[in-house]
Amino acid sequence: MPFFRFIFITVNISDNIADLTPATGFFLLIFLISTHSVLLKKDGVKVSSVTTQKPGLRKWSYPVFVFLLLLFTTEISNPLTGFSLLPEFLNNFLIDSLFIRIAGTFTVFLSVFVLKTTLQHFGNSLRFGLNENNVGKLITTGVFARSRNPFFLSLLLYFFGTALVFPNLFFLIFAISAFAGIHFSILKEEKFLQKVYGDEYFEYCRNVRRYF
Questions:
Q1: Which sign, positive or negative, has the C-alpha torsion 126, 132, 137, 143?
Q2: What is the separation of C-alpha 64 from the centre of its chain, rounded to a whole number of angstroms?
Q3: Can you say whether the dihedral through the CA atoms of 77, 80, 81, 85 is positive or negative?
Q4: Could you give the CA distance from residue 167 to residue 164 in angstroms, rounded to a whole number?
Q5: Residue 134: pLDDT band by 50, 70, 90 thresholds?
Q6: Gap between the Cα atoms of 139 and 147, Å rounded
Q7: Rounded-to-integer distance, Cα 39 and Cα 32, Å
Q8: Torsion on CA atoms 125, 47, 116, 146, rounded to nearest 10
Q9: How far is it, in rounded angstroms, from Cα 205 to Cα 207?
């Protein structure tokens, strides 16, 4: 009996940790990015750059992005708040497996580690937005010697891990949509970097893969 009680308690604890992991990981990612950005601004680095965007696209894309972000944060906080905006069929687990949820937990924390390492290796070159008048040095060492896009890779790991922790239809669709959106952003950024860094970037692309 003590052995089965131990197993039961272990399973319960693992389940509770998994429930809290996506929200914890999300706020850790935000904290790391915000802290690094603030430190760079104190050093006089302009982190945010204005990108050229069609007014019509900007008009509807920002509200959609904010809505999806609020919806996502509401759902990852559901184990804490008990509040959800989704219909039940989107919240039901497609696979009820503790092993998969634990794998998702490790993936989320791996994403935090990858992002932390990326920001360290980025140094003063971190930029948000594509502006030829505000670029940093092309970083090709450290984690960037293993992946051309470790920042985006960390986000993909986070969304994938969250979909494993909460294997329901909503987070599965969200993870697939996030991958499509991030991949499109990477392709757009690659064209920009090719234009800005020229042969240096082409040589980098020959030696390092897009993701890992």
A1: positive
A2: 18
A3: positive
A4: 5
A5: confident
A6: 11
A7: 11
A8: -40
A9: 5
Q: Tell me the β-bridge partners of 128.
A: 48
* Rounded-to-integer distance, Cα 185 and Cα 179, Å: 10
Which residues fall within 8 angstroms of residue 211, CB to CB, at 6 or more apart? 147, 148, 149, 153, 156
What are 51's two structure tokens? 């990108």
Please state, in angstroms and rounded to a whole number, the distance separating the CA atoms of residues 111 and 175.
14
**How many other C-beta atoms can be found within 10 angstroms of the C-beta atom of residue 14?**
15
Q: Where are the domains of the chain?
A: 2-53+88-207
- In one letter, which amino acid is 129? G
Instruction: For 5, list phi and psi in degrees, rounded to 5.
Output: -65, -40
pLDDT tens, position by position, 57-105: 556 677 888 899 999 999 999 999 999 999 999 999 999 899 999 999 9
Among 149, 148, 133, CA closest to 46: 133
Contacts 24+ apart (CB under 8 A), 136-145: 136/45, 138/193, 138/197, 138/200, 138/201, 138/204, 140/204, 140/208, 142/117, 143/114, 143/117, 143/118, 144/118, 144/208, 145/208
CA distance 72 to 65: 10
Class of domain 2-53+88-207: mainly alpha
d(CA 114, CA 108): 10
d(CA 49, CA 108): 28
